[in-house]
Amino acid sequence: MEACKHYYSVRYVRLPDLLLDLQAARDNGTFSTVLKKYTKPIVLIIDEWLLLKLTEAEARNLFELIHKRRRKSSTIFCFQFRESEWYQQICDGESTLADAIMDRISYDSYKIDIESVDPSKDLSMREVYGLNPAMEK
Asked: Is the pLDDT of residue 52 over 70?
């Protein structure tokens, strides 16, 4: 929100959607054009980061994006796993692509881990915003 207030270009995308978009572009010959869509914004927010394990092809496409954004713009990764677990999510940690991606992310990055002080008092986002799942039907 703060980046938008300061008129920076910002793009939000879920990793599964990003991977589908990049693969479709590679398949139909528009990869460089679609890649620009994600490299151009000053801030790129990637949600659901490595929620599912990446295939070799997905890792290759992601590597291209991360490499092109490196040192030129900011990328925010929203994740459920600790960074130490990311490596295994990229081709089971067996690929040199896993090394290359992790090197580019870890170098010159700032990490903000949000830890619970008291898990018994944690609220879900539904509770925070007063949403009742039974009322949504």
From this structure: yes
